Amino acid sequence: MSKENFEFKTEVKELLNLMIHSLYSHREIFLRELISNASDAIDKARYESLTNTDILENESDWKIKITPDKEAGTLTISDNGIGMDREQIISDLGTIAYSGTKDFVNLLKSKEVKDNPELIGQFGVGFYSSFMVSDHVTVITRKAAQGDKKGIKWESDADGSFTLEECEKEGKGTDVILKLKEDEKKYLEEWEIRSIVKKYSDYIEHPVVMEVEREKDSKIEEGKKIKEKEEEELNSKKAIWLKNKSDITDGEYNEFYKHISHDFSDPAKTIHYKAEGTSEFTALLYIPSKRPFDIFYKEYKIGPTLYVKRVQIMEHCEELLPVYLRFIRGVIDSSDLPLNVSREILQNNKQVEVIKNSVVKKALDTLGEMKKGEYDKYLEFYKEFGRVLKEGVHFDFTRRETIGELLLFQSTKAENDQYRSLEQYVDDMKEGQEEIFYITGASREEVINSPYLETFRDKDYEVLILTDEIDDIVMGTFEYKGKKLKSIIKGDIDLDKSKSEEKKESEKKYKKLIEVIKENLIDDVKEVRLSGRLKDSACCLVAAEGAMDPHLEKMLQSMGQEVPASSKILEINPDHPVIESMQDIYDKDKKNPLIGEYSRLLYDQALLLEGSKLKDPGQFTKSLLKLMAAGAKV
Ligand code: ADP
Questions:
Q1: Which domains does the chain have, with CATH numbers?
Q2: Threshold 0.85, pTM exceeds
Q3: How far apart are CA 540 and CA 572, in angstroms?
Q4: List of residues 6+ apart from 307 with CB closer than 8 A
Q5: DSSP-derived 3-state class of residue 333
Q6: Residue 568: pLDDT over 60
Q7: pLDDT of residue 123
Q8: How far apart are CA 596 and CA 599, in angstroms?
């Protein structure tokens, strides 16, 4: 077969472009990424060899070899792992997991990334980081299960395309050959390679070896020294999670985190413990400090890497972690699970349930301690992951109160950028207050001057400001310490019970007027009623209790989704002079067309106040101008 040419997908082109021109400061991590891929490939081969005797290798034979060639200017990383076939190499080294997601391409091109090259680490660049140090990469690979020597050769200059051709390959596994850029030749030096491996890949379970030249005493000629090449292991291989906590430095913990997460930043917290008793396992888990850009994508992979007695079983074991803790990365090594454990077994396994419960408890406890003892750090965490954690209130019924304790909110009683907890809210509740009030909106700025808050501000009630899309879904059904959470833009609000007599009077007074307004707006609102939440504004629109949250509704509409026509309620303020004027007009002449015009104006204003579009802006302006002209005459 001759050479075939393939175009990279757009996002890979962008990523490669970014790699080639990368100003990223720790380019040596390319070696960590390639060693990590090689190690994964060996794990896979070893796992497959449990059931496929064709792969049977001597346990001691697994290895990763680094070969610098100064003459050729190449650095080769070889493994005897699982290898790739033609289809795999096309999809694995030609696309990226997030392929097709437009956001990803945009993110790559964004100024943010250009200005801050460290961000590229978030993309799980892996193999492509080779192009930070080399201008031509060759991959020669042969599947582990393949008996004959047929292999495949992949080559690219990162210029937008790659080539494939069949070839012979002596051993099983993969060679990645980097032709180093002129100014990156330092990676051919023995001491450089040695120190990078020690720094980033010491805990890799398989030996990372290199041929080194050593001076030895000649056996033939006494007193004479000769040079001899021999393979030397560069890493200590000890699985970091099995070491004693006291023997591991923060630096080592952090490096291991970067190895498994592809994150370039240090984690916010490390959780390392051994469980004994009903289930025996070791967990090394991390709470990251930066939110991965794809955490809200469908493709985002959840769960720690599962090992059984040091053998890697699967990379993302989603059975071990609930979705709302999906930001947690790490490793679980179990002593009880069978080695040939499958997805089906995992799904109904008691041991797995025990491990998951333990991990969730540990994670939530850790977050709780962080919130208490290191509030600033916790706040940073919360800004990154609060939106994810919050899902737990909805999905983890048994722990919703515990998760509720971890939530933070903006509030009318907190400065901009300060947060309040539910505990603080409840402690400061007013006498007789039964509910925790909240308002939803796109941002604090958007809602802070909202008419919905008027009475609450006037009567000094705290209102939490919820700005995440999922807030209403999550919070709408939540009860914290027996106090329901209540949206102030839905349903009836009655803060001042002592005024109920007065309200009854007003209702009597405006009964007819309200009916007329309703007739005029029959196509637009479900109901017109007097408001208990307004002070200065004349009117506002509210949703019925149990209806979809207006903020969510707007968001869905903006995304082009069909939203069922909600029938809103128009609330009017009985103490507002405009309403009194309307009543006067009505008393004098029940048929006066001004009532109709004013009703519409009220409704249009209410629409504007809630941030919605007017149905007929032309008519609105006309009515308004007419009023202004009349006012000017007076
Ligand atoms: P990641 O390792 O995060 O999946 P990479 O871009 O580094 O991303 O690699 C993409 C895929 O290519 C890997 O998931 C793996 O399937 C395959 N791959 C890379 N290197 C090797 C290797 N040495 N042996 C076998 N497969 C490999």
A1: 4-215+222-233 (3.30.565.10), 240-376 (3.30.230.80), 407-487 (3.40.50.11260), 497-545+563-633 (1.20.120.790)
A2: no
A3: 7
A4: 239, 313, 331, 332, 333, 334
A5: strand
A6: yes
A7: 64
A8: 5
Query: How far away, in angstroms, is 56 Cα from ligand 1 center?
Result: 22
Ligand 1 pocket: which of 92, 146, 208 to mutate (most atoms <8 Å of CB)? 92
User: Nearest Cα to 540, choosing from 583, 509, 496, 576?
Assistant: 576
pLDDT in tens, 339-360: 767 777 788 888 999 999 999 9
Q: Report which residue type is found at 30.
A: F
35, 37, 79: which to mutate for ligand 1, most atoms within 8 A of CB?
A: 37
What lies within 8 Å, CB to CB, of 378 at 6+ separation is: 367, 370, 371
Tell me whether strands 134-142 and 74-79 are parallel, antiparallel or unpaired.
unpaired
Nearest Cα neighbor of 340 from 308, 302, 305, 303 is 308
Q: 307-326, pLDDT tens digit by residue?
A: 888 777 888 999 999 999 99
Rounded to an integer, the average pLDDT of 461-478 is 89
Query: What is the distance in A from the centroid of ligand 1 to the CA of 531?
Result: 62
For ligand 1, the distance from its centroid to the CA atom of residue 92, given in whole angstroms, is 6
What are the Cα distances from residue 323, in Å, to 250, 345, 353, 393?
A: 28, 20, 15, 12
Q: Name every protein residue with a CB atom under 6 angstroms from any ligand 1 atom.
A: 33, 37-38, 41, 79, 81-84, 92-93, 124, 126-128, 174
CA distance 79 to 41: 8
